[in-house]
Amino acid sequence: MSIAFVLTNTELSSDMEIIGKIKDILANEKDIEYEIQGVYGIYDIVLKISSNNEKKLRAIITNKIRKIDNVQSTLTMMVIEEQE
C-alpha cells in the first residue's frame, strides 16, 4: 500500500475551509484511506493518505489537493514501502 504525508500551508484562516474541500475530494475517491488534521506550527494541515494505486495517489495530490484555492504550498513525503 502506498502512503503519503502531505503537509500544507494555507492562507490565513482558510484551514477549516481547505480541510472541508479535501474531505469532499477524497470522499468521492474509491480505494483511498485518509486522516486529516489542522496543526500548529510551520504547516497548517497534515494529511495522511493511502491507496493501493500509487499513480492514483500522486494524481490526487498533484491535480486536486495542490490546486485548491488558498493552498499556498505543500510538502509531500511518500513512505518507502520496503521499510514499512
Topology:
Elements: E1 2-10, H1 15-27, E2 32-38, E3 45-51, H2 54-65, E4 71-78
Antiparallel strand pairs: 1-3, 1-4, 2-3
Characterization of this structure:
- It is a single chain.
- The chain is 30% helix and 37% strand.
- A 4-stranded antiparallel sheet has the order 2-3-1-4, with helices on one face.
- It has helices at residues 15-27, 54-65, and strands at 2-10, 32-38, 45-51, 71-78.
- It is globular, with a radius of gyration of 12 Å.
- It has 84 residues and is an alpha+beta fold.
- It has 2 helices and 4 strands, in the order βαββαβ.
Could you write a compact summary of the structure shown?
The protein is an alpha+beta fold and 84 residues long. The protein is built from 2 helices and 4 strands.
